[in-house]
Write a structure and sequence with these properties.
about 230 residues; alpha/beta; Rossmann fold; 6-stranded mixed sheet; 4-stranded antiparallel sheet; about 25% strand; binds adenosine-5'-triphosphate; branched-chain amino acid transmembrane transporter activity; ATP-binding; nucleotide-binding; transport
Length: about 230
């Protein structure tokens, strides 16, 4: 679904990603792991057109998207849930969702409707008239995911969905993402929570020094303590 080849990107004069190759296969969950500062978020930002592709290529379902503006990339079917969640705090849950539904690309029968996201996240249904700023961290994360789904994405990108959440909420988010996986949604996930990431993912890319230093299955990495110690400091 998503192919990144020889990607170089960074901030101004500072290059952070040096020749990254990464594939997120259709219908699979791909997790990017790595220590703080390895370049995981930077990679996602480049995919979303928020940072320049200085060298290399990014394509979605065979179509080049490297260098396109963020809204064009979103229109081609990538929805992004950033680390910061980016909920509109002064809008209600209903308004946050309605806005996403309005800007979603017009396509064939949309897979995701307001009713369907509320079925997935009933908690949001109870909070429809609350402001974004009145939500707990877990509710904000649910809203951010629900909003992304309303874009009817071909690829859902999640940056640290468990960050700052209590263990019980982390489990709930995990179960929801498992439902999406069972439904066949292609996902690319950056995650510090090793157990969360390896139990969801089909494939893992380990990032270090701005590139992919290892790729393989969650089973392989779970069994390899040396690899974990070297690249995750676990
Ligand atoms: P983390 O979990 O800490 O976010 P990460 O793997 O996502 O880790 P990135 O946020 O991609 O790491 O950061 C990679 C490198 O880019 C780091 O050295 C960081 O200091 C640098 N960096 C990140 N954001 C900026 C920025 N806005 N300007 C300059 N350098 C940045």
């Amino acid at each position: 679904m998503l192919e990144i080849g020889g990607l170089h990107t960074g901030y101004g004069e500072t290059r952070v990603i040096h020749g990254l190759d990464l594939v997120a296969r259709a219908g699979r969950v791909t997790a990017i792991l790595g220590r703080n500062g390895a370049g995981k978020t930077t990679t996602l930002k480049a995919v979303m057109g928020l940072l320049p592709v200085l060298e290399g290529e990014i394509s979605l379902a065979g179509e080049r998207i490297g260098g396109l503006a963020p809204f064009e990339i979103a229109r081609r079917g990538i929805a992004y849930v950033p680390e910061t969640r980016d909920i509109f705090p002064s809008l209600t849950v209903r308004e946050n969702l309605a806005l996403a539904a309005r800007i979603a690309p017009v396509g064939d029968a949309p897979r995701w409707t307001m009713a369907r996201v509320l079925e997935l996240f009933p908690r949001l249904g109870e909070r429809m008239d609350n402001g974004g700023n009145q939500l707990s961290g877990g509710e904000q994360q649910m809203l951010a995911i629900a909003r992304a789904l309303l874009m009817n994405p071909r690829l859902l990108i999640l940056d640290e969905p468990t960050e700052g959440l209590a263990p019980i909420i982390v489990r709930q988010i995990h179960d929801k993402l498992m439902e999406l996986k069972a439904d066949g949604l292609t996902m690319l996930l950056v995650e510090q929570n090793f157990g969360f990431a390896t139990s969801l993912a089909d494939e893992v890319c380990m990032m270090g020094r701005g590139t992919c230093v290892w790729r393989g299955t969650p089973g392989c990495i779970q069994a390899d303590r040396e690899l974990q110690a070297r690249w995750l400091g676990v």
